[in-house]
Structures
1.
Amino acid sequence: MKKVYLDYAATTPCDPQVLKAMEPYFLELYGNASSLHSFGQDAKRGVEDARESLASFLGAKPEEIVFTSGGTESDNFAIEGVARALGKKGNHIITSAIEHHAVSEPCKFLEKNGFKITFVAVDKSGLVDPADIKKAITDKTILISVMHANNEIGTIQPIAEIGKIAHEKGVYFHTDAVQTVGHIPVDVDDLNVDLLSLSGHKFYGPKGVGALYIRKGTRIERFLHGGDQEKGRRASTYNTTGIVGLGKAVELCRQNLEKEARFQSALRDRMIKEIPEKIPDVILNGHPAKRLPNNVNFSIKYIEGESILLNLDMLGIACSTGSACTSSSLEPSHVLLAIGLTHEVAHGSLRISMGRWTTVDDINYFMDNLPKIVSKLRAMSPLYDKK
Ligand code: PLP
């Protein structure tokens, strides 16, 4: 059966060149990167080369990069780390209503422990208004955290503008860039950020490795206690293979980003145009222009996203209804509710996310089959009958 993977926002396959770069670190260069002998030093070189690659890709300095176990740890580290370092100065954090749970959950955890959290609303296209952030700042605000692009609807936020506001008020600014690094340009100075989270498995690296960029001078407590790896900022034996893989993935993105973004955004725009032409009663979720090049998200009214997903899966096509982390939950996505969809419409959402190996043929196959599946499901839907 033909297989078409259109769920790159959930995770990407590892690039074969990444796997090749990692292999020697499993088999020959297996030393502990903290060891002083040659085995250790060889491994350390791999880690430090990756750190340099990543830093230069982000416009950062190597010493501003801390490797972590992925996006979730980086987000938790940023939020709880700043909260612990500056808790005496202030207990207020501002974030948006559409963050990934890796940001919203640590915020809610802090809320139970004496912090005040402002969840700033977004407009219908999922955009945060920087003026709302400005209004929310008090003399107790220590951190603002707004994601660079949303993982479900792809909307790209005015991060540089929000960063400027944060710095005018002397507040740290963190962004979750898990969906943007490797897909659109990300430069820590252009974005005015103090902290930035990223994750290897979202840009053709391995799973279980990520990084937190920490601008020099930012006050932050360590999150993982133990050994003094990462200059005392993050304990645990270096994940050499993962870090080397992440470094190689960065190099490949540096070479391919522009070309891939151009190709994927053409396919994205084609779907955004053709889906409403072929299927009545659909709503585009997310901003029409300020969105990730690889993201398409529609609500298809009168039917369930899960039913569409299962029917597509029977044809070998993998999409998503939203975030993979909440796909087992029956609750509609908090992101879709935050942009004003009703529960019913939110339940009919479908996210298509493309990547390095998506072809025109894949999209043709998807576009040929989606309208047929929707017609079949609507024919059985009591909601569609009553329309
Ligand atoms: N933040 C965003 C925006 C994400 O999309 C994800 C993963 O889906 C994460 C954080 C969590 O990253 P990880 O899977 O590396 O822990």
2.
Amino acid sequence: MRRAVYPGSFDPVTNGHLDVIERAARQYDEVLVAIAHNEAKTGLFTFEERVALLREAVQQHPNVQVTQFQGLLVDYARSVQAQVILRGLRAVSDFEYEFQMALMNRKLDSDVETMFLMPKEEYTYLSSRLVKEIARLGGDIGAFVPDCIARALRAKFAATDSAPSRKP
Ligand code: PNS
């Protein structure tokens, strides 16, 4: 059984992440898309919302599961007997951070190998942060996220916009 963990914040999942997940689902028997549970880092979507949205977005892949983890990624990978940590590499700008993380994870557990997958070129400029900004400012995000995420983003910002101001 070749099992890989694809960790991230996924706040929210984008078409770039989904492209990596599709590639991974073809290469591995089982892919665990693992959302990092970080109490100190608050995202736009709650942890529970991210889990539900990711589940909806990957439902067509029978060998992909959405999971969560707390603490060290290598400890989680070991606990689920995954041999591989997967990360997407979009551009050179990703490299330094990813290289540092991969080597640190190797130092922590040399049995878990980090593998990189490149999404389609058209997604190299895509990030959750930019998608959120475009959605917040009313831009069209249809090409960047699946429909369920676009709807959730619109609902999130509609709710935020209509919320009464806290300022006096
Ligand atoms: O999508 P992101 O935010 O780039 O994902 C980063 C993530 C969650 C993969 C990374 O922060 C992580 O692995 N966190 C778990 C804690 C950990 O193991 N830290 C040491 C990494 S060398």
